[in-house]
Amino acid sequence: MAPRASCFLLAMMFSASCKAITSLDQMCTEKEANNTYNCENLGLTEVPDTLPNTTEFLEFGFNFLPTIENTTFSRLVDLIFLDLTRCQINWVHEDSFQNHHQLNTIVLTGNPLIFMAETSLNGPKSLKHLFLTQTGISNLEFIPVHNLENLESLHLGSNHISSIKFPENFPIQNLKVLDFQNNAIHYLSSEDIQALEQTTNLSLNFNGNDIKGIEPGAFRSKIFQSLKFGGTLNLSVVLKGLQNSTTQSLWLGSYDDTNDQDLTSAMFDGLCEISVESINLQKHSISDISPATFRCFTQLQELDLTANHLNELPSGIEGMKTLKKLVLNVNSFDQLCQVNAASFPSLTDLSIKGNMRKLDLGAGCLEKLENLQKLDLSHSDIEASDCCNLQLKNLSHLRYLNLSYNEPLGLQSQAFKECPQLEGLDLAFTHLQVKGSQSPFQNLHLLQVLNLSHCLLDTENQHFLTGLVDLRHLNLQGNHFQDGSISKTNLLQTLSSLEILILSSCGLLSIDKQAFQNLRKMSHVDLSYNSLTGNSMDALSHLQGIYLNMAANNIRIVPSHLLPTLSQQSTINLSHNPLDCTCSNIHFITWYQENLQKFEGSENTECANPPSLKGVKLSDVKLSCGITAMGIFFLVVFLFLVAILLIFSVKFLLRWKYQHI
User: Fold this and answer.
1) What is the pTM assigned to this prediction?
2) CATH of residue 306
3) Is 337 part of any domain?
4) 321 occurs within a structural domain
5) Residue 308 sits in which domain range?
6) Neighbouring residues of 128: CB distance < 8 A, sequence distance ≥ 6
7) Is residue 300 part of a domain?
8) How confident is the model at residue 23 (pLDDT cuts 50, 70, 90)?
9) What's the pLDDT at 259?
């Protein structure tokens, strides 16, 4: 009974009073102090007074501003970027931006514009980007021409424009991007294109317009950075219309909702009269594909045949010695050899991602591609019991290899001996069956990035990562360690150059204090979505200035001896942890509130205990951890009783002593 009474007395003496200090939420979200703000979708009808005059980047979309006048944003004279998407704007009056000399981007997307005054865009000294997408424009004369001399990009997509003829005094000489996608343009005349002659290296977008006719010679001798005619039903019309033109990139792809005709080899004859480096033909189907199909492709450097229903490329293709990049994603090859890679001897980049059938890598199918540097074979149901030297034969210059999201791969020692120049290797979500205790990567001395997330690795094999002397970035997300613990001796010990380590969702319960001692160059450590406690951060005490992500763990209390370790880090994320907001955690809470600038995810860094503070942001909690008034009363009573007990004890001892003299 006495011990219980003592505990109760002490609890009453040192009981803490807890309360949350709730601050008024800012109406707009601050992305960068005094500079960048998001005020979207708040039902605003004017600029809030809380927005500082120094604001430079403002996202103000999805509010209600039917009219823009010269007083609407007059206070924000430092604006550089202004997004007014879907603010139900109908009228833009004279000199609406007269005070905004630094403004270079105005976004008016999704506003039903009825009127824009001729001088509505006056003021900015260097307006470069204007977005008038989905504003109901049907005629280019609607756009005010004043103060557009420096305009570099004009976005007019999803309107009702049927002619691209600009007014004679429209300043287009500095335009680099002109976007007409998803309008009602069906015919391009020589006069239309002639108006664009003042531009240089223009990117012109006609996607989604279904061009039905181009006046012969309209594009003659014209030079473009890129041309896009995606969604056009009859490509032969476009290719004939572009004769004697020059463009770096030509986009002729289709879309899922477009019922286009099958392409024939004859349709590509027009390409012979066009100077082009890159062509995209995604989501088409070539009915009579043969070596002749590629007769006019001989000057290409890049070719994209994504989703072309291909099950092979014909052998005997000639003259494509300049092709550097070939994209064959989402096709239906059975074997890698069906690509007939020998037809493209200069390839440096090959992508066969998302193959629709199980892809057999075969043996030496790419051995003629001696210059290949990048190979993407992800999402292709590849399975191999002994990978990958035979399959990657003679690819000695390969630098980036992606085999992620495939079926199980068996890896022998030095499995990538044929690719000693690899700098990046992605094996994510591919079950790796390592045969033997030696590292399959031991000859990859130049490898810098390795993604092994969700590979069902044997993390007990301490030699698994041996040889990766220059590895900088390692992703082990989703791989589990024995007993949920990383011991002092582990597979990471040899990675002395490592800078970024991702160990999220690894089921970790603890980390030995010495586990990362050899990893002294780390700048980014992600331990999120585990079950670690605060003490696990002791393993990082030797590191400084790192980004530390401990979100979604089991951290309740952060011991005070770990605060120096946290103090020396640059950014910390402790969100979604069941943090204890009682006096047992007072030192950490106080330090946290004094160092909010260090923390990421503060909105979700909340109390879990006691119940009265559950869900309260840690930054809003105030604890009083002294002795309360009731505690003082019980302390006085306690001391009084102790004094009386002491006095009686002394008297008793003295009486006993004299009785026994």
Assistant:
1) 0.87
2) 3.80.10.10
3) yes
4) yes
5) 289-382
6) 104, 105, 150, 151, 152, 153
7) yes
8) very low
9) 67
